[in-house]
Design the sequence.
């Protein structure tokens, strides 16, 4: 099988390959490095490089080792995270060593365990069996950033994961669990800061303004593996769900660059009536083909039902935390419809050229917006706003 490892799996510029076609590489070997903002990329398999363009293609050896080439010795844990190429695994892809380089003396290290997007379940499943690792990770990151308090923010509906975390930190005074509301987008940074600290972040502000840093569960896991096992980021946890035979299936530690067709087969194949395939969550995921490949930030493979055919005139109502105009237009087009009007939730305000929601999750009625869209000729509305 061929593995395709994208040279851009993070915020910033694509990495530069340091291998060439024909090279033999080993699992865990460094194969690309950032030219500016970015993170190291390592080979997720042992094999032979067959192509390099915007990605590095590797023909896997038939027998794959269980071990991997370890990252080099480092003088501290932050450097280990940098060497390992850890990035925000929840979808953001921001290089974690850059985020953790912020000192938040006396501040708050917060773990986002919301697993916010519907259907995705791999973070919560991971916590159930690895709560001790999560708590160790909080301690490492508190030490790196000089944070005084550690928090793990989770929805109480994830009862088993919550119990596992409560047991893991029951005798630890400075690491506590905080509850998030059972809604999307509970994992938004502003919702987390509001629920955990009672502070209202303004659109465009960063958590560091509130002396806080937020990391997602799998990002934290990758930090711990880098520190304790010297493991580079070569694998990904993910959920496949929707119109596949098994309906929902969670996979752990999957080689980055594996084609998503592999997971569709592993989930029993596509069911009749299946439609588009989305990588990511239902709210913010992107359309992909079966020939797409998983990256450091691919959390879900979702197989939708076929689009209903509806040639109506549509109005688009965009929400910052959900699908944006381009994605909603794509869906309308797939239904055979036409976009005749477009607006945004009234809570969205323009900050530095980008529309941001000023109170994510405190969603207003949308009657005004609907009227506006109707006046624009819309016979049907498509939106991607929040859910309880
Ligand atoms: S307030 Fe509006 S923009 Fe903000 S999350 Fe809710 S629906 Fe989306």
Sequence:
């Amino acid at each position: 099988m061929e593995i395709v490892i994208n040279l851009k799996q993070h915020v910033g510029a694509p990495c530069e390959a340091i291998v060439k076609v024909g090279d033999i590489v080993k699992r865990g070997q460094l194969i690309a490095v950032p030219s500016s903002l970015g993170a190291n990329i390592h080979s997720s398999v042992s094999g032979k490089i067959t192509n390099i363009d915007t990605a590095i293609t590797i023909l896997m050896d038939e027998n794959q080792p269980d071990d991997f080439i370890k990252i080099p010795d480092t003088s501290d844990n932050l450097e280990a995270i940098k060497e390992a190429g850890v990035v925000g695994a929840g979808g953001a892809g921001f290089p974690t060593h850059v985020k953790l380089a912020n000192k938040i003396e006396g501040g708050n290290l917060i773990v986002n365990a919301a697993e916010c997007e519907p259907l995705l379940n791999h973070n919560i499943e991971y916590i159930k069996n690895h709560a001790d690792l999560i708590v160790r990770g909080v301690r490492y990151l508190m030490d790196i950033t000089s944070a005084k308090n550690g928090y793990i923010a989770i929805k109480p509906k994830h009862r088993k994961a919550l119990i596992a975390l409560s047991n893991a930190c029951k005798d630890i005074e400075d690491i506590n669990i905080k509850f998030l509301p059972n809604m999307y987008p509970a994992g938004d940074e502003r919702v987390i800061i509001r629920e955990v600290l009672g502070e209202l972040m303004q659109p465009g502000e960063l958590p560091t303004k509130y002396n806080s840093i937020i990391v997602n569960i799998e990002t934290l896991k990758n930090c711990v593996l880098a520190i304790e096992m010297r493991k580079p980021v070569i694998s990904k946890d993910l959920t496949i769900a929707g119109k596949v035979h098994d309906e929902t299936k969670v996979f752990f530690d999957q080689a980055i660059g594996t084609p998503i067709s592999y997971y569709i087969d592993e989930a029993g194949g596509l069911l009749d009536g299946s439609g588009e395939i989305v990588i990511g969550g239902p709210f913010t995921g992107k359309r992909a083909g079966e020939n797409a490949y998983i990256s450091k930030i691919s959390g879900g493979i979702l197989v939708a039902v076929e689009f209903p055919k509806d040639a109506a005139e549509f109005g688009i109502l965009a929400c910052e935390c959900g699908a944006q105009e381009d994605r909603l237009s794509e869906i309308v087009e797939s239904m055979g419809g036409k976009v005749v009007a477009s607006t945004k939730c009234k809570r969205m305000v323009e900050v530095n050229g980008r529309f941001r929601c000023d109170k994510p999750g405190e969603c207003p009625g949308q009657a005004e917006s609907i009227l506006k869209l109707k006046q624009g000729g819309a016979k049907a509305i498509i939106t991607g706003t929040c859910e309880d």
